[in-house]
Amino acid sequence: MKIKFHWGISTTRTIMLSFLLVILIGSLLLALPVSSADGQALPYIDALFTATTAVCVTGLVTVPTVSAWSVFGQAVILILIQIGGLGVITILSALLIGLHRRIGLGDRMLIQDAFNLNTLSGIIRFLRKVLIGTFAVEGIGALLYMTVFIPEHGARGIWISIFNAVSAFCNAGMDILSEDSLCAYVTDPVINLVTCTLIIMGGIGYIVWWDVIRVTKKHKAAGVKAFRSLTLHSKIALSVTGLLIAAGTFAFLVLEYNNPMTLQTLSWPDKLMAAFFQSVTTRTAGFATIPQQDLTNASAIVSMLLMFIGGSPVGTAGGIKTVTIAVLLVSAFAAVRNQSDGVLFHRTIPKHAVSKAVAVVCMAFIIVFSSTLLLSMCTDADALDIAYEVISAAATVGLTRDLTSALGLWGKLIIIVTMYFGRVGPISLVIAFHIRKANHNIVKNPVEELSIG
Predict the structure, then answer these.
(1) Measured between alpha carbons, how far is 428 from 86 in angstroms, rounded to an integer?
(2) From CA 328, how far away is CA 314, in angstroms rounded?
(3) Global pTM?
(4) Domain residues for 410?
(5) For residue range 173-185, what is the model confidence (pLDDT) as tens digits?
(6) How many domains does the chain have?
C-alpha cells in the first residue's frame, strides 16, 4: 500500500495545508483541560496562538509556557516545535521510511519542494541525514544543558534540557524556565554558548552541513583551501552569517554599553557575551538574555534588520534568508556600476536567482507592512513596539518588547496570520518562482525602456 501526501493539488498548497492542519490539531489538543496547568481549559484563541507559534517556530506567546501549560501541554508544544522545525512533510516522510513504505516520484517531488532542493537525486538519503543530524545535535545540546539544569532543578532539569535543546535548534525561542526567557542566565557561559551553537546549527541550513563535512573529509582540515572548495551557496551562507553575527555583536556592544537597563552593570566579558547572544538570537531564535523592551531605539532598529534577514535556506530559521539578501545587494551594486551581472566568489549569479530574491523581499515587505498597519489599528502601543512585534512574527523570531501578552482578540489573530505567512510564505514563494523549463512562449510582448531611480 502506498500512502500519498497530496491529492491532485500542487505541492505548494500541500505544504501550506499541512502546516495549517497541524496547527489546528495542536490547538485542539492545547484547548483541552488536561493541557492547562490548573486543569481549567484556556481560551481557544490562546491555544490557537500557542499552536501557531510552536508550529511556525516563532516563540511569541500570549500566556507563559512555563506556568500556563501542564507537562502534557508542554509535551504537545514540544512535538509541534519539532514538526514545525523539520517540516510536516519531513516528519511524514520519516514515518513512511520507518514503516518501510515506498516513497513514489510524486512524494519525492513534494520533499524536494519542501526543502527547496534542485534535484531529486539522493533525496531519501538526504532526508535520512537530516533526521539523524537533527536528533544528534539536539541530543548533544540537551546533555550539555543538563550540566546546568539538573543541579538547579533536579530531575525536572532533564525535561527542561530536552525542551530547550529542541526549541533552540528549531529556532523556536520557547522555554519552560521562567516568564523572562533566559534573562537569569545572561552571565552563564554554558547556557549562552550552547544556546547560540544550537541556534546557528539550526539556522545555517542542512545543505551547508553536508558541504562542510564533504570538504573537511576531502582536505582533512579546515582553512582557506577548504573554504574555496565549498559550493557557492555554502560560501554565501557562512560568510553572511559570520558577518551579520560579528556586526550585530559590535553594534549591540556599542549601543547598549552604557544602558543601565541592559549591559552597563555587567563586566566586560559578560557585556561581550550578552551582545553576542543578542546578535545570534535575532537571527530568528527568539530567546532573550536581556529584556527587549529595555533596548535603546537604535538597538531595536538593528534587531529588526537582523530579524528581517534571518537565517539561511534549508534550515530551521525564518526571515528572507542570508543568501537572498546577498544576491539582492550584490546585484544592486552591479547595476549601480553598470554591470550586467552580479558576481560572488568569482561566480556569476543566475538571473532567475535575482528574480527570486526580489520576489521574496517584496512579498516579505508586503506582509510586514500590511500586518503593521492592521495591528496599529487594533492597539495604541508605541509604533516601534508594533513594528518590532510584526517583524518578529513575520520572520518567525519570537522576540517581543512586552507587547504580545497585551494583545486583544484582533491583535492576536493578526499575529497568528502573520506568523503563518512568515513560515509558509517564503517556502511558497521559492516554489512558485521555481524555474519551469516547459514554459516557452513563442510570441513575446514588445519591450519598452523605462526610467528607473
Answers:
(1) 16
(2) 18
(3) 0.88
(4) 11-432
(5) 999 998 899 999 9
(6) 1
Residue 447 lies in a domain: no
Cβ partners under 8 Å of residue 267, min gap 6: 187
Q: What does residue 286 show for φ and ψ, rounded to 5 degrees?
A: 95, -10
Asked whether residue 440 is domain-assigned, the answer is: no
Residue of higher predicted confidence among 387 and 425: 387
The string of pLDDT tens digits covering residues 234-275 is: 999 999 999 999 999 999 999 999 999 999 999 999 999 999
pLDDT band at 4 (very low <50, low <70, confident <90, very high): very low
Residue 139 covered by a domain: yes
Task: Tell me, yes or no, whether 231 lies in a domain.
Answer: yes
Beta 343-344 vs 347-348: how paired, if at all?
antiparallel
